[in-house]
Write a structure and sequence with these properties.
271 residues; 76% helix; 0% strand
Length: 271
Protein backbone atom coordinates (compact mmCIF):
# COMPACT_ATOMS: atom_id res chain seq x y z
CA UNK A 1 0.00 0.00 0.00
CA UNK A 2 1.32 3.43 -0.89
CA UNK A 3 0.88 6.48 1.29
CA UNK A 4 -1.10 8.09 -1.59
CA UNK A 5 -3.67 5.29 -1.40
CA UNK A 6 -3.64 5.43 2.38
CA UNK A 7 -4.57 9.09 2.69
CA UNK A 8 -7.23 8.91 -0.02
CA UNK A 9 -9.08 6.06 1.69
CA UNK A 10 -12.28 6.52 3.74
CA UNK A 11 -11.60 7.99 7.19
CA UNK A 12 -12.43 4.93 9.34
CA UNK A 13 -10.52 2.52 7.13
CA UNK A 14 -7.63 4.99 6.89
CA UNK A 15 -7.39 5.21 10.70
CA UNK A 16 -7.22 1.42 10.98
CA UNK A 17 -4.56 1.25 8.31
CA UNK A 18 -2.45 3.94 10.00
CA UNK A 19 -2.59 2.01 13.25
CA UNK A 20 -1.57 -1.16 11.45
CA UNK A 21 1.38 0.60 9.86
CA UNK A 22 2.41 2.04 13.21
CA UNK A 23 2.30 -1.38 14.84
CA UNK A 24 4.24 -2.93 12.00
CA UNK A 25 6.91 -0.25 12.25
CA UNK A 26 7.14 -0.65 15.99
CA UNK A 27 7.51 -4.42 15.78
CA UNK A 28 10.01 -4.15 12.98
CA UNK A 29 12.05 -1.75 15.08
CA UNK A 30 12.48 -4.19 17.96
CA UNK A 31 15.83 -5.87 18.21
CA UNK A 32 16.96 -8.66 20.46
CA UNK A 33 19.11 -7.31 23.28
CA UNK A 34 20.21 -10.68 24.60
CA UNK A 35 23.88 -11.52 24.05
CA UNK A 36 24.51 -14.94 22.53
CA UNK A 37 24.87 -17.80 25.02
CA UNK A 38 23.99 -15.66 28.02
CA UNK A 39 23.75 -18.03 31.03
CA UNK A 40 21.15 -15.86 32.83
CA UNK A 41 19.00 -14.14 30.21
CA UNK A 42 16.23 -13.40 32.70
CA UNK A 43 18.56 -11.57 35.05
CA UNK A 44 20.19 -9.74 32.15
CA UNK A 45 16.79 -8.45 30.97
CA UNK A 46 15.78 -7.55 34.49
CA UNK A 47 18.94 -5.52 35.06
CA UNK A 48 18.39 -3.69 31.80
CA UNK A 49 14.87 -2.93 32.99
CA UNK A 50 16.19 -1.60 36.29
CA UNK A 51 18.64 0.66 34.49
CA UNK A 52 15.92 2.02 32.18
CA UNK A 53 13.59 2.57 35.14
CA UNK A 54 16.30 4.51 36.96
CA UNK A 55 16.65 6.74 33.91
CA UNK A 56 12.86 7.19 33.65
CA UNK A 57 12.70 5.43 30.30
CA UNK A 58 9.33 3.97 31.16
CA UNK A 59 8.52 2.19 27.90
CA UNK A 60 11.98 0.61 27.60
CA UNK A 61 11.94 -0.57 31.19
CA UNK A 62 8.46 -2.01 30.74
CA UNK A 63 9.55 -3.98 27.69
CA UNK A 64 12.48 -5.56 29.52
CA UNK A 65 10.38 -6.42 32.55
CA UNK A 66 7.60 -7.82 30.37
CA UNK A 67 10.01 -10.18 28.63
CA UNK A 68 11.04 -11.59 32.00
CA UNK A 69 7.44 -12.01 33.16
CA UNK A 70 6.23 -13.59 29.92
CA UNK A 71 9.19 -15.78 29.04
CA UNK A 72 10.72 -16.91 32.34
CA UNK A 73 7.91 -18.10 34.64
CA UNK A 74 10.34 -19.87 37.01
CA UNK A 75 12.80 -17.01 37.26
CA UNK A 76 13.60 -15.80 40.79
CA UNK A 77 13.43 -12.22 39.53
CA UNK A 78 10.00 -12.63 37.93
CA UNK A 79 8.13 -11.14 40.95
CA UNK A 80 10.42 -8.10 40.94
CA UNK A 81 9.92 -7.73 37.19
CA UNK A 82 6.15 -7.86 37.68
CA UNK A 83 6.44 -5.18 40.34
CA UNK A 84 8.71 -3.20 38.01
CA UNK A 85 6.00 -3.06 35.34
CA UNK A 86 3.73 -1.37 37.84
CA UNK A 87 6.52 1.06 38.71
CA UNK A 88 6.87 2.12 35.09
CA UNK A 89 3.18 2.99 34.91
CA UNK A 90 3.27 4.81 38.24
CA UNK A 91 6.30 6.77 37.08
CA UNK A 92 4.68 7.63 33.78
CA UNK A 93 1.77 9.12 35.69
CA UNK A 94 -0.89 9.65 33.02
CA UNK A 95 -4.46 8.69 33.84
CA UNK A 96 -4.28 5.71 31.50
CA UNK A 97 -0.94 4.60 32.91
CA UNK A 98 -2.17 4.83 36.50
CA UNK A 99 -5.15 2.59 35.71
CA UNK A 100 -2.81 0.03 34.14
CA UNK A 101 -0.39 0.35 37.04
CA UNK A 102 -3.12 -0.35 39.58
CA UNK A 103 -3.99 -3.50 37.66
CA UNK A 104 -0.34 -4.66 37.71
CA UNK A 105 -0.11 -4.16 41.47
CA UNK A 106 -3.35 -6.06 42.05
CA UNK A 107 -2.05 -8.95 39.97
CA UNK A 108 1.23 -8.90 41.89
CA UNK A 109 -0.62 -9.10 45.20
CA UNK A 110 -2.77 -11.95 43.86
CA UNK A 111 0.17 -14.00 42.61
CA UNK A 112 2.71 -13.09 45.29
CA UNK A 113 0.77 -12.25 48.49
CA UNK A 114 3.65 -13.27 50.78
CA UNK A 115 6.42 -11.66 48.76
CA UNK A 116 8.72 -9.41 50.85
CA UNK A 117 7.73 -6.49 48.62
CA UNK A 118 3.99 -7.00 48.95
CA UNK A 119 3.81 -3.93 51.19
CA UNK A 120 5.40 -1.87 48.41
CA UNK A 121 2.83 -3.15 45.93
CA UNK A 122 -0.05 -2.33 48.27
CA UNK A 123 1.32 1.17 48.95
CA UNK A 124 1.81 1.89 45.28
CA UNK A 125 -1.63 0.51 44.43
CA UNK A 126 -3.05 3.15 46.77
CA UNK A 127 -0.81 5.77 45.16
CA UNK A 128 -2.21 4.95 41.71
CA UNK A 129 -5.62 5.97 43.02
CA UNK A 130 -4.30 8.95 44.99
CA UNK A 131 -2.58 10.42 41.95
CA UNK A 132 -5.97 10.41 40.22
CA UNK A 133 -7.75 12.30 43.00
CA UNK A 134 -9.79 15.24 41.82
CA UNK A 135 -10.21 18.67 43.38
CA UNK A 136 -12.32 18.88 46.52
CA UNK A 137 -15.25 20.30 44.54
CA UNK A 138 -15.26 17.30 42.18
CA UNK A 139 -16.13 13.62 42.42
CA UNK A 140 -14.16 11.85 45.17
CA UNK A 141 -14.34 8.24 43.96
CA UNK A 142 -10.58 7.93 43.49
CA UNK A 143 -9.96 9.49 46.91
CA UNK A 144 -12.21 6.90 48.53
CA UNK A 145 -10.49 4.10 46.60
CA UNK A 146 -7.08 5.35 47.75
CA UNK A 147 -8.23 5.42 51.38
CA UNK A 148 -9.61 1.91 51.05
CA UNK A 149 -6.27 0.60 49.76
CA UNK A 150 -4.39 2.45 52.52
CA UNK A 151 -6.62 0.75 55.08
CA UNK A 152 -5.67 -2.61 53.58
CA UNK A 153 -2.03 -1.61 54.03
CA UNK A 154 -2.60 -0.70 57.70
CA UNK A 155 -4.35 -4.01 58.31
CA UNK A 156 -1.87 -6.27 56.53
CA UNK A 157 1.49 -4.59 57.06
CA UNK A 158 1.47 -2.92 60.50
CA UNK A 159 5.23 -3.42 60.88
CA UNK A 160 6.26 -2.22 57.42
CA UNK A 161 9.12 0.30 57.33
CA UNK A 162 6.97 2.20 54.84
CA UNK A 163 4.40 3.01 57.53
CA UNK A 164 5.49 6.64 58.21
CA UNK A 165 5.32 7.56 54.53
CA UNK A 166 2.04 5.70 54.09
CA UNK A 167 0.50 7.56 57.03
CA UNK A 168 1.57 10.88 55.49
CA UNK A 169 0.00 9.96 52.17
CA UNK A 170 -3.12 8.68 53.90
CA UNK A 171 -3.44 12.02 55.70
CA UNK A 172 -3.29 13.85 52.37
CA UNK A 173 -6.07 11.68 50.94
CA UNK A 174 -8.17 11.90 54.10
CA UNK A 175 -7.80 15.70 54.05
CA UNK A 176 -9.04 15.80 50.47
CA UNK A 177 -12.18 13.85 51.37
CA UNK A 178 -12.81 15.98 54.44
CA UNK A 179 -12.23 19.16 52.45
CA UNK A 180 -14.87 18.00 49.98
CA UNK A 181 -17.42 17.72 52.80
CA UNK A 182 -16.27 21.01 54.31
CA UNK A 183 -16.73 22.80 51.00
CA UNK A 184 -20.30 21.52 50.78
CA UNK A 185 -20.89 22.90 54.28
CA UNK A 186 -19.44 26.24 53.20
CA UNK A 187 -21.83 26.34 50.28
CA UNK A 188 -24.76 25.83 52.63
CA UNK A 189 -23.28 28.45 54.96
CA UNK A 190 -23.06 31.02 52.16
CA UNK A 191 -26.66 30.50 51.09
CA UNK A 192 -27.69 30.68 54.76
CA UNK A 193 -29.05 27.15 55.01
CA UNK A 194 -27.82 26.82 58.56
CA UNK A 195 -29.22 23.37 59.27
CA UNK A 196 -27.50 21.82 56.25
CA UNK A 197 -24.24 23.59 57.11
CA UNK A 198 -24.33 22.39 60.72
CA UNK A 199 -24.95 18.79 59.67
CA UNK A 200 -22.07 18.82 57.19
CA UNK A 201 -19.57 20.46 59.55
CA UNK A 202 -20.49 18.03 62.33
CA UNK A 203 -20.00 15.18 59.90
CA UNK A 204 -16.42 16.33 59.24
CA UNK A 205 -15.70 16.53 62.98
CA UNK A 206 -17.10 13.06 63.56
CA UNK A 207 -15.47 11.34 60.59
CA UNK A 208 -12.09 13.10 60.70
CA UNK A 209 -11.22 14.78 64.01
CA UNK A 210 -7.62 15.20 62.82
CA UNK A 211 -8.56 17.15 59.69
CA UNK A 212 -5.91 19.80 59.08
CA UNK A 213 -8.57 22.40 58.28
CA UNK A 214 -10.27 21.97 61.62
CA UNK A 215 -10.06 25.67 62.52
CA UNK A 216 -12.35 26.53 59.62
CA UNK A 217 -14.77 23.80 60.63
CA UNK A 218 -14.88 25.08 64.22
CA UNK A 219 -15.55 28.64 63.12
CA UNK A 220 -18.23 27.95 60.53
CA UNK A 221 -19.96 25.35 62.67
CA UNK A 222 -20.07 27.77 65.62
CA UNK A 223 -21.28 30.62 63.46
CA UNK A 224 -23.94 28.45 61.82
CA UNK A 225 -25.20 27.37 65.23
CA UNK A 226 -25.21 30.97 66.44
CA UNK A 227 -27.17 32.22 63.45
CA UNK A 228 -29.28 29.20 62.69
CA UNK A 229 -31.09 28.87 65.99
CA UNK A 230 -31.61 32.60 66.40
CA UNK A 231 -35.30 32.59 65.50
CA UNK A 232 -36.24 29.45 67.40
CA UNK A 233 -33.98 29.40 70.45
CA UNK A 234 -31.31 32.10 70.54
CA UNK A 235 -30.04 31.01 73.93
CA UNK A 236 -29.49 27.44 72.75
CA UNK A 237 -27.63 28.64 69.65
CA UNK A 238 -25.24 30.67 71.79
CA UNK A 239 -24.67 27.80 74.20
CA UNK A 240 -23.85 25.33 71.42
CA UNK A 241 -21.61 27.70 69.47
CA UNK A 242 -19.58 28.89 72.43
CA UNK A 243 -17.35 25.79 72.91
CA UNK A 244 -16.42 25.72 69.22
CA UNK A 245 -15.31 29.35 69.24
CA UNK A 246 -13.30 28.66 72.39
CA UNK A 247 -11.68 25.53 70.92
CA UNK A 248 -10.72 27.50 67.84
CA UNK A 249 -8.93 30.14 69.92
CA UNK A 250 -7.36 27.53 72.18
CA UNK A 251 -6.10 25.15 69.51
CA UNK A 252 -5.52 27.55 66.60
CA UNK A 253 -4.51 30.89 68.05
CA UNK A 254 -2.89 31.94 64.76
CA UNK A 255 -5.77 30.86 62.55
CA UNK A 256 -7.15 33.20 59.91
CA UNK A 257 -10.51 32.77 61.70
CA UNK A 258 -9.21 33.64 65.18
CA UNK A 259 -9.94 37.37 65.02
CA UNK A 260 -13.52 36.87 63.88
CA UNK A 261 -14.01 34.24 66.58
CA UNK A 262 -12.87 36.76 69.22
CA UNK A 263 -15.34 39.30 67.88
CA UNK A 264 -18.17 36.78 68.06
CA UNK A 265 -17.28 35.91 71.66
CA UNK A 266 -17.04 39.57 72.66
CA UNK A 267 -20.45 40.28 71.15
CA UNK A 268 -21.95 37.27 72.90
CA UNK A 269 -20.48 38.36 76.24
CA UNK A 270 -21.71 41.91 75.77
CA UNK A 271 -25.25 40.65 75.22
Amino acid sequence: MTYWHLFHAPALWRTAAILALALTAACGGKKSVLPANNPQPDRFLFERGEEALKNKKWADAREYYRQVVDNYPQSPVRPDAKLGIGETYLGEGSSEALVLGANEYREFLTFYPTNPKADVAQFHLALCHQKQMRAAERDQTETKDALKEYQVFFDRYPNSPLMPEVRTRWREARDRLSMASYRVGLHYYKIRWWGGAVDRFREVLKEDPEFTGLDGVYFHLADSLLKGDGTADKKRGKAESLPYFERLLSEFAQSEFAEEARKRLQAMNAQ
